[in-house]
Amino acid sequence: MDFEDFIAGKDDNDRKIDRVLKSIFKENKSVNVFEILRKNLVKINGSKARKNQVVKTNDKISVPSFLLENRIPLSDFKSDSAAEREKYKLETLFKNENLWIINKPSGINVQPSEKSSQSISNIVLLQWKNSPESRNSLSFTPAPLHRLDKLTSGVLSISQSLDGARWFSQEMKNHNISKKYLGVIQGILKEKVHWTDKISKNNYTENFYTVHKSTILDKNENSMSSSTYATPLFYGKWKGISFTLAEFNIETGRKHQIRLHSSANGFPFLGDTAYGGIKGPFFLHAASLVFPENNLGVPEKVNAPLPEAFYDFLKINLLNWNGEIII
C-alpha cells in the first residue's frame, strides 16, 4: 500500500490525531477518520496510530494514498483581467506570526458563496498553501476571524496561528475589541444616537438588491438584542438628496446590523435598496479596530484608509469639508 507523508508543524503540537486527520481530509468529506484509525490505516513515525494518540511537532503522519485521490480541489480565485486582479489585491495594514489585518476591498465576499468562489477566504488560503508558513501546521489554516458584507470595505482580521485565532475570538467574545465604521446615510442625523432595536433572523436577505419589507422592531422570542451608536460627522448632498457621513460603533455583531438599524430609524444607507435606500452609490467602511493590551504584538489601533471611490464621493459632495476624517 502506498502512503503519503505529512509532517506535523508547531501548531499541531499536543493535538489529537483525529483532529489533525480531519484537517488533512477536509477536502475529501467521504473519509471517516475514526474508521481509518480503527482499521490501523494511519501511521505516526512508522508505527500504527492509536485512536487518542497526541501528535507532536515534526511527527511524520502517513496515510494511504488512495484516500487522497478524491480530494476536491480548492476553488481557484479567477480574475478576467489585470484590472480585476489588482482590484482584489489584499492591502496589508498589519501582519505578524499571529494575525494578518487587511483593508478589504468592496465588492468581494469574505467567504465563498454558491454564486461565486471569489472570496477573501479563498485568496488567503491559496496564498498560504504556496507559502513556507504552511509547513507549520497540518491542523491549522488561516481564515477570516469576523464578517464584513460584500459591499463593505475596511479592516478585516485573518488568523495566522492557532494562538492568534483563539486570542482574537476570545477578545471578541468578551467585547474587548471595538470596531468603528464610516457610512453614508440618507437624511440629516442631527446628534449622536443609540439604537437598540432587536434583530430577527428572518429579516436577513442575501440578495443585496432585493427590496426588504420586514421591520426589525421585532419582539418575538427569536429576535436578538443589538446595539449601535451613530454619530454625525459631516453633511452633504448628492443629486439633491441630503445625506450624513456618520461614524458607527457597534457593541454586537449581528448580520447587516448597521444597515438594519439605520433603515429602521429613518436613515437608510444611500444605495441600500434592500433596506429602503434610493438607488445610488453605497458606502460602508470598517475604519478601525481597537485592541486591548496583552494583544500578541498587535498595535493598539489599526486604521484602514478610505477606498478611493468613497473618498472621491465625499470630496465632491460633502459641504465645507477639508478632506480630513479623524477616527
Keywords:
24% strand; 18% helix; 7 helices; 327 residues; 4-stranded antiparallel beta sheet; 9-stranded mixed beta sheet; elongated; alpha+beta
Write the layout of secondary structure elements.
Layout: E1 3-7, E2 15-16, H1 17-24, H2 33-38, E3 43-44, E4 47-48, E5 54-55, E6 60-64, H3 82-87, E7 91-95, E8 99-104, H4 120-129, E9 153-159, H5 162-173, E10 178-186, E11 193-195, E12 228-238, E13 241-250, H6 257-264, E14 284-290, E15 301-303, H7 308-317
Parallel strand pairs: 9-14
Antiparallel strand pairs: 1-6, 2-5, 3-4, 3-6, 7-8, 8-9, 10-13, 10-14, 11-12, 12-13, 14-15
Brief summary:
This protein is 18% helix and 24% strand. It is built from seven helices and 15 strands.
Q: Would you give an account of this structure?
A:
- The structure is a single chain.
- The chain has 327 residues and is an alpha+beta fold.
- The chain is 18% helix and 24% strand.
- The protein is built from seven helices and 15 strands.
- The strands form three sheets. Strands 7, 8, 9, 10, 11, 12, 13, 14 and 15 form a nine-stranded mixed sheet that branches. A four-stranded antiparallel sheet has the order 1-6-3-4, with no helix packed on it. Strands 2-5 form a two-stranded antiparallel sheet.
- The model is unreliable at 72-82 and 203-214 (pLDDT under 50).
